[in-house]
Amino acid sequence: MRCALVVPAWVPEDIFPVETAGSQINYWQPLGILYVAASLRAAGHDVRFLDGSFLTHGAILARLRAFDPGFVGIYSTTFGWPKALATAADVKRLIPGAFTCAGGPYPIAARDKCLRAAGAHFDAVVTGEGERTAVELVARIEAGRDLAGVLGVVFRRGEEIVENPARPLEENLDSLPFPARELLGDAARYLPPPATYRRKPVAVMMTSRGCSRGCIFCFQIDKERKSGRHGVRFRSLPDVLAEIELLLGQGYREIKFLDDTLAADYDRAMALAREIKARRLDFSWFASACVNQVDGPLLRAFREAGCWAILLGAESGVQKNLNTLRKGTTLAQIREAVRAARDAGLKVSTPFVFGIPGETFEEGLKTIEFAIELDPDLANFHALAAFPGTYLYEQRERYGAVAEDLAGYTYQGAAFVPYTMTREEVLRLRQLALRRFYSRPAYLARRLLALHSPGDWRAAVYGAKSLFWLWARERVFTRDAGAASRRPAAATVAGTRARAPDRVSD
Questions:
Q1: What are the pLDDT digits (tens) for 19-54?
Q2: Which CATH superfamily is domain 2-163 in?
Q3: How would you class 159 by CB atoms within 10 Å of its CB: exposed for 0-12, middle for 13-18, buried for 19 or more?
C-alpha cells in the first residue's frame, strides 16, 4: 500500500517570538516517524515522508494528491494539534478514500478524546509506540478488514468510537529496523539550535527508550515504570554501534543522543564510550544526563570518545522547587556535575524552568542567580508546561491554571501558571534570566574568544540579535499583551510569519 507520513506545515514563529527565533530555531530529525516508516517499508509498503518544517501546507497537499496514498499518518504534538486536524480535513477532501490516522505525543496522551474531537477527519489514533501498530493497522486496511483487536489503536466504526487495549511496549529494541533517514531528502537541513552542534550534518539517535525518573512535567507511556529496568529499555551496545557506523557511512559527522539520560546505566554508558574510542569512530557527539548519574571518570570517558557537550538538567536554584518537580536531585549534585563536566573538558548546557507549582517570583530570581553561579556555556530558561499525559496536567487544578488554546503548549508561552505567580511574572522571569545571563561581560568575552568556525560566528550573530531585542523590547515573550491575569490567555502568533529560507510552496 502507498503510505504517507506527514508532519503538518509550521513556521518557527508559531513557537518562538519573532525577535528571538533565529537563535532558538531547530529542525530535529523526527525519529518516531522514521522508525514507523522503516517498519512499514520492511513490511513491503511504499512510504513517503512529507515534512512541514520545509513544505507549506499547499505543497504537502499537492504532493499527497500526486502520490494518492491509501494510508496517511499525521504527526501531532499538543500545540500542533490544530494544524494536524486541518491537514486531515484537507486530505479527506482531496483524497476521500484515504485512511487518516493521528500519532505522536498528543494523540498518545489524549487517546479517544483526540478522536472524538476530530469529527470525521481522522479514522484512527495510535495510542503508543507505532512501529508494530502501524504495520498491523495498514495490513488490516489493505485487506479491507475491521480494526477490532489491533492493539494500541482507537478507531472510528461509523458513528461508534472503539478503543482497543494498549499495545505492550517493545522490549526488544534491537528487533526494530533503524530509522529510515533516507526519506529525509537533504539531511543537512536538519540542525539543532545554533551553538548546540559542532559538525554537519547532524543525526539524532536514541540508544534507549523510557526513563526511571518521576518528574511531574515529563510524559512517559510507561507511567508505572514497569518496562525494561525501572522504565528504561536499552538497546544492546552492538546494535547501537552498528547504527553509529551506518550513520558515519551515510556522511553524518555529529550525533545528538536523545536518550532522556545516556547515563541511566552507568556501566553501559562507560562501555559505550570506551568502545567508540576503541573503534576510532570519527564523530562528535552531544548527550543529556541526570546530575546524580555522572562523575568525573564517566565524563572524561565521554570526552575521550568524542563527546564535546553535555546537557545536565538543573531546572531550579531552589531545593524546595526541585523537590516539587520530583527531580530527585540536590543543588549540591548540580554544582558537582557541572564542575566535573567542565573539568573533563566538556561544554555544559543547563535548562531551567519558571512557573513551578508553589514557586514565587522571588524564588525565580534565586534560580537566575544560581544559573549565573554555575556559569554553564549555555543556559535555557523555559516556562514550565503542563502537557497532557503528565502528572502536572492531571493535577493542574491543584497546582495552577492552564491555557485552553493548545497552540500555547510549548516551553515558550507559559500555558501553565502556578497559583503563586501571574503569567506576566513567569514571562518576565524568562526575559530577565536571558538578559542577565547572556549580558555578563566575562561571559561575552569568553564566547568571543571561542569563535573559530563560520558556524560559531553565525550562532553568535543570531545570539546577538536576540540579546538586542531582549533589552530593546519589553515583554518579548508575551504574545497577547493583555494577558496579565493568573489564568493564561490563548496564545496568538506575534508579528509577521517569516518562512524558513528553504521552505517549499506549491
A1: 776 666 778 899 999 999 999 999 999 999 999 999
A2: Cobalamin-binding domain (3.40.50.280)
A3: exposed
